[in-house]
Amino acid sequence: MAKISQTIRGYIWWMYPRGSVHYDIMVTLILAFIFLGPIWINFRDKPQPRPLHQTEVLVKPDGNGFVYTVDAVALTPGSNVQLRDELIRVIEPVAGEVQIDRFEPVRDDKGKTVAYKVWGHR
């Protein structure tokens, strides 16, 4: 019994010389914990789910300002004033403070609005 407690104490205090059987056992246990631990232990560090609709903003230079193309799924339909506010809300995280000069819808061949082209400057 005393020999077992001495062996355990040697493992805890890392008392065995490099190259010995006990040293190799300690290193194996550590490596097993590093590589096999995440399989058995739930560390609760899962990646955050992405939002359902990613907002995509294309930016192209246009003379004095920029032309922004904003996906229509990123916007809530409404009046022109509400739509202008929504466009600013989507564009400002990408481009900073922006003044919108004008905007127009981009439609597919069925007439559905798929995006908005926005002309603006800083």
Fold and architecture overview:
The longest helix is centred in the N-terminal third of the chain and has 20 residues, at 21-40. This protein has a 4-stranded antiparallel sheet, covered by helices on one side. It has 2 domains: 2-40, no CATH class; 57-121, no CATH class. The protein is built from 3 helices and 4 strands; from the N terminus they run ααββαββ. The chain is an alpha+beta fold.
Largest sheet: 4 strands, antiparallel
Beta percentage is: 25-35%
- The total number of structural domains is 2
What is the helix fraction of residues, given as a range? Answer: 25-40%
- Rg from alpha-carbon coordinates: 30 Å
Task: Give short descriptive properties of this protein.
rod-shaped; 2 domains; 122 residues; 4 strands
Compact description:
The protein has 122 residues and is of the alpha+beta class.
Show the helix and strand layout.
Elements: H1 2-12, H2 21-40, E1 57-62, E2 65-71, H3 80-95, E3 99-107, E4 113-121
Antiparallel strand pairs: 1-2, 2-4, 3-4
